[in-house]
Amino acid sequence: MDDHAIVAACAKGDSHALRSLHERHARAAYTFALRLLGNPADADDAVAEAFYEVWRSASKFANRSSVRTWILGIVRHKALDLLRARGARAEEAIEDALTDTLVDPGPTPFEWLAEHQTWEMVDRCMQALPVPQRESLHLFLLEGLSLQQIAQLQGVPDNTVATRIHHAKRKLKLCLTEALGLKKASPKADSVL
Amino acid sequence: MTNTPSQPTGERPSASPGEIQWLDRIRQQLEVAAPPFDHERNWQRVAARIDAEREWDRAQNRRSQGRRPWWWALMAYGMGAATAAILMTVVAPEPWRADTAVVPLGAEESTAKAAARVRLQVVFSDQATLAQVRAALSPIDAEIVAGPGRLGVWTIAVPASSADEAEKVLRALPIVESVSR
User: If I label B62, which of A10, A77, A158, B6 is the partner at 20 to 30 A Cα–Cα?
Assistant: First the structure.
């Protein structure tokens, strides 16, 4: 049974169908929520809330997107609600992203970074990104969504998503460079860069 | 669904091969970095909320129906309809009986009928019952016209053709004290 048929069954009150959806998509939802929230307990909350919302609004699913994208959109709303409840200011983060004066770390060889960076560094640097950039990069890299799909999910123009991903990559590269002790000003960094 | 940046889905930002390789490495490391997800525990949380919602709905339904069985409303409607039908029969005018002549016991006789009858003044004994009075009047085709008055006098009408005979019959009865024209 495909996802759309399962959602239709959910709309008729079939909780077994919801369980099937949960089995298929909860892990991706959790990874996404965790990326936004940075806290496993909060991510677990967001996923549970999101699937309850899926259950309640299954009859409103309009088949305009994939079920995965629809679920991730609901997870995103729940995660942002939690972020607001925690006092995080997503709007400020967006402003930061658009007006940041980050210095590009320069032509650090990607191959060198890829070889030396650790998953702990990547995880930490990813969490240091502003929420909208982190979210866009996650959906782009781990969910394989297109710019249009991400834009639809975030409710922003395609160009905004492209800008967010661009900034996210730059900041991630800088953060990893610094984490590896290859700051631009240092002699060691100069030798590598 | 995890596509590598080198296997784009839809429109994707352009990137150099080195950057694509780096992003692919980032993706792999982020997947490793993801802590384990307790699928079953999360599902139990969702299921508990759905159960709670269903229980709430059931409670609301019970409240709205006053805990009455499904046939209660049907029975109440039926009883209401039956009551209305009875009231219509007993109280309301009956058009289907419009042609039925209703003759009050004490109604005035028509002039022609009155002319063909003779009136008699009868006094029954104090012990006479109504049943005995009826039994006395019925064989002689008498009708009560008025009475009894303050002195106990009944005015009756009998057919003029048998008035004498009626007078004799009445006088012969033990419950009759007097008969006069």
Answer: A10
